[in-house]
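User: Okay, second chain of the day. Same drill as before: sequence in, structure tokens out.
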Amino acid sequence: VQLQESGGGSVQAGESLRLSCTATGFTFDDSDMGWYRRAPGGECELVSIRRRNGSTYYEDSVTGGFAISPDSDEHTVYLQMSSLKPEDTARYYCAAAHGADIRVVITGSRGCWGQGTQVTVSS
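Assistant: Same drill. Structure tokens below.
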């Protein structure tokens, strides 16, 4: 299983970014996909999930501003982030759970493994 995040950058508050996570080595359509983040000095935090049944979940602070969407042909899941705030500054990671509930499989810091992609929002 390999996941490659990209799309991070430095933006001003109120601007937008789209993160991408490209997956290889497993059946994309049979997997829950999630985005997580870790702010400097903080813990790994679940941001959003796109479950294999098509349902989605958003952490309260990003509801209404972030949108998760898949591209099955490209084996990619996107996180469109709009109206970014300085408190969204973090390194963002994606994770996957094949045939299982991602909230059961990916716990604690496991959501923030790998390279990730840095998002910096200045005021």
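The helical segments are 102-105.

User: Thanks, on to the next one.
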